[in-house]
Design the sequence.
């Protein structure tokens, strides 16, 4: 089963390679991995999408918690959460008919065309994992030249937070 | 607390360079010995140490002992030997590039066996990093997965806190090696010494606090004793965590109070005196037959500071097959449930956990005397044994004779291979921290430098390196180090002109094709080599009848001594539980009796059958 694991790490040299290294050394899957600063400049957030059975996921979380740089770890999938991914993609559209068809799909998926040339549409789409997959599936008969996926980021619903205030509550 | 706060460090406010700051934190942390090898990128540190020691000598204070090995790997294992013998943090200092990469092996080795170290490596100046500079190596990346933590100090202002924090991380929780990579410009940076302060390491410290606070609740204690009450054949499985946590006294009290027998892992040797009535010695691939049979027979296993490693539970599913309950205490949450599901688990120090259970269960009583009779019978029926009539020198015989002389009073280090296992099987260990071996990593070449480190830490203690001809070659250069520092280390070398363990596996599993393991044509004269390095006592024994007397002479020699014993090339390590096999399938060789499979129905079998253990939640 797919799990979205959110990891708060100290903004220190080597934190990223240590987390990524843990996954490769222990042969855990990484479907996607994103890293960016947070509202607190001393912390970065990494979102790792991985898959495995319950025992494997429990080990991943416990092993992450052993890393000195790791401040907090949470399996977002274990509670109510929102997951999003941004997709940027480029489609070659040579005829008016192609343009119209692609535009129709873009509208259906509430995506946006960001850049237009005579023969290309560059499209942005935001959504959950299944929406991204469905969007790509819908475009599969068209001449998609490049797909860039951001990897999934996620956040808990309601008052659920993963930050230092939450850490001190433990 | 306030008094402590007001207690300002006498050097506070003094201007120092980075290297001096580092040495000052060493002094503050009580470091008395450093194992290190100099080089371009650590010159400021070696200079600061020299000047620090000059001042100490002038003030008639104690200088920091500097021990220089032949190779940085030696420095790492010396620091590890120092740490294993004392429980204190071992310190090594190496230069950038090859200095640091040579130290990777002892760092990973110490990680695998949870040994607290602080390693300082010099690094090329910050501005040169990433330019493929002279003697540049990616320490942060290369050692990251091998160490408990690696710091790269880019901000010189944080150097002092970083060093202090490294010691904290190394010794707390599940101990391990911490590396600090210090670029040369940071070593030369000048600033005021603060004398106080650590890095925040918020997540780590929070988790440590949580673990400290997590005293076993009354309810959980009750669950534990309920499992014990429902058990007729409980067995304690003690690992290296008992030694690390200084819990051997509590373990003995616990075992004695409830009358529960104890088996231990390779790293758990010394957790309970090996001659104790309740001790069934080591289990696993080369565990004692009686210890392994006890694991087969127990109906409750209490794992303390042990991790069901594959050399113990090679076939995890059928490890302790009759155990209806497994209780597991470990400081590392990730170990609980990793290999075997624990019916009762607690994350905490072995010492505090055992104290807590002992105080909660002060009135708990259950009669396990039939089980004790059973394990004592196992000990009597399936003892360690070997070909006592052989005309060749049997390694077991040498160890039995050695055991009579040292009687558990020496610190023993070993290389890796057959001699290591024989030493674990045939010597007695009556106290913790007297057995040091590379357990999880099994690094050949560990024994000699580890013995040096232990001898530096414990100058009054007898230290014996029991080594093999393959292993000792790996760090042979450190023979000279023994002499350089006038350390009375004893080196007992078992020479079978082979990588004996590899040869044994080839004998058993690879049709006697001794690929790469045979050293019969190797020309080294070990006795001469030791003499060349300055050993005044260096002898070889080739006849069985000379063994006892020469051992006596060797051990009582006042100073460093080297003794090579030429042993039977075909002496094997038994028992042997082949990889992936169950204990029931254990091969005990020709001289150790083995239990028929399946176990004959005897009185004991009736105990097993009459069990009615309710499901443990």
Sequence:
């Amino acid at each position: 089963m797919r799990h979205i694991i959110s990891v708060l790490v100290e903004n220190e040299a080597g934190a990223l390679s240590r987390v990524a290294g843990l996954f490769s050394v222990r042969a855990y899957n990484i479907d996607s991995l994103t890293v960016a600063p947070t509202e607190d400049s001393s912390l970065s957030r990494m979102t790792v999408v991985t898959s495995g059975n319950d025992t494997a996921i429990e080990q991943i979380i416990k092993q992450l918690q052993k890393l000195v740089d790791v401040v907090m770890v949470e399996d977002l999938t274990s509670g109510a959460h929102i997951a999003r991914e941004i997709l940027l993609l480029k489609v070659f559209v040579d005829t008016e008919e192609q343009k119209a068809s692609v535009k129709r799909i873009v509208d259906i998926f509430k995506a946006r065309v960001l850049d237009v040339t005579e023969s290309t549409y560059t499209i942005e789409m935001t959504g959950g994992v299944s929406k991204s997959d469905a969007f790509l599936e819908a475009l599969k008969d068209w001449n998609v030249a490049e797909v860039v996926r951001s990897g999934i980021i996620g956040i808990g619903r309601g008052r659920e937070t993963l930050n230092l205030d939450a850490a001190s509550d433990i | 607390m306030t008094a402590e706060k007001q207690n300002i460090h006498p050097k506070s406010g003094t201007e120092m360079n980075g290297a001096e700051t580092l040495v000052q934190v060493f002094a503050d942390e009580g470091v008395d010995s450093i194992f290190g090898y100099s080089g371009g990128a650590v010159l400021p540190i070696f200079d600061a140490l020299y000047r620090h020691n000059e001042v100490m000598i002038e003030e008639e204070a104690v200088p920091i002992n500097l021990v220089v090995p032949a190779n940085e790997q030696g420095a790492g294992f010396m620091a590890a030997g120092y740490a294993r013998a004392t429980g204190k943090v071992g310190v090594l200092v190496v230069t950038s590039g090859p200095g640091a990469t040579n130290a990777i092996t002892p760092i990973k080795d110490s990680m695998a066996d949870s040994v607290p170290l602080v390693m300082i490596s010099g690094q090329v100046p910050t501005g040169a990093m990433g330019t493929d500079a002279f003697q540049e190596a990616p320490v942060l990346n290369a050692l990251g997965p091998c160490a408990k933590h690696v710091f790269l100090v880019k901000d010189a202002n944080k150097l002092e806190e970083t060093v202090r924090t490294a010691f904290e991380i190394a010794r707390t929780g599940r101990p391990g090696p911490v590396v600090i990579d210090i670029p040369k410009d940071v070593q030369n940076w000048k600033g005021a010494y603060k004398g106080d302060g650590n890095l925040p390491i918020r997540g780590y410290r929070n988790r440590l606090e949580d673990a400290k606070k997590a005293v076993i609740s009354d309810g959980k204690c009750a669950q534990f004793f309920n499992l014990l009450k429902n058990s007729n054949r409980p067995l304690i499985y003690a690992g290296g965590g008992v030694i690390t946590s200084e819990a051997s006294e509590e373990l003995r009290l616990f075992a004695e109070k409830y009358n529960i027998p104890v088996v231990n892992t390779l790293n758990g040797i010394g957790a309970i005196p090996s001659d104790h009535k309740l001790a069934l010695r080591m289990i696993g691939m080369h565990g004692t037959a009686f210890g392994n049979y006890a694991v087969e027979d127990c109906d409750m296993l209490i794992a303390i500071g042990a991790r069901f490693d594959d050399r113990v539970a090679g076939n995890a599913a059928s490890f302790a097959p009759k155990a209806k309950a497994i209780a597991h205490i470990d400081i590392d949450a990730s170990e609980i449930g990793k290999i075997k599901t624990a019916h009762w688990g607690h994350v905490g120090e072995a010492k505090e956990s055992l104290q807590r259970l002992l105080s909660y269960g002060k009135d708990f009583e259950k009669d396990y005397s039939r089980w004790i009779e059973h394990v004592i019978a196992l000990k009597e029926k399936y003892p360690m044994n070997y070909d006592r009539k052989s005309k060749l020198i049997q390694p077991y015989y040498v160890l039995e004779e050695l055991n009579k002389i040292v009687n558990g009073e020496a610190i023993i280090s070993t290389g890796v291979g057959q001699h290591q296992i024989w030493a674990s099987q045939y010597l007695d260990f009556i106290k913790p921290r007297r057995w040091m071996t590379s357990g999880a990593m099994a690094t050949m070449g560990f024994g000699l430098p580890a013995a040096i480190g232990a001898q530096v830490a414990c100058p009054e203690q007898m230290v014996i390196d029991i080594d093999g001809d393959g292993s000792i070659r790996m760090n042979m250069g450190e023979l000279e180090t023994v002499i350089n520092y006038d350390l009375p280390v004893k080196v007992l070398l078992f020479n079978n002109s082979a990588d004996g363990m590899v040869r044994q596996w080839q004998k058993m599993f690879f049709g006697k094709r001794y690929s790469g393991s045979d050293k019969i044509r190797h020309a080294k004269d070990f006795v001469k080599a030791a003499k060349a390095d300055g050993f005044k006592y260096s002898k070889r024994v080739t006849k069985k009848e000379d063994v006892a007397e020469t051992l006596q002479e060797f051990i009582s020699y006042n100073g460093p001594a080297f003794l090579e014993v030429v042993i039977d090339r075909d002496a094997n390590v038994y028992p042997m539980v082949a990889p992936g096999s169950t204990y029931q399938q254990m091969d005990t060789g020709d001289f150790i009796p083995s239990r028929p499979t399946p176990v004959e129905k005897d009185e004991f079998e009736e105990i097993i059958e009459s069990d009615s253990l309710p499901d443990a939640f």
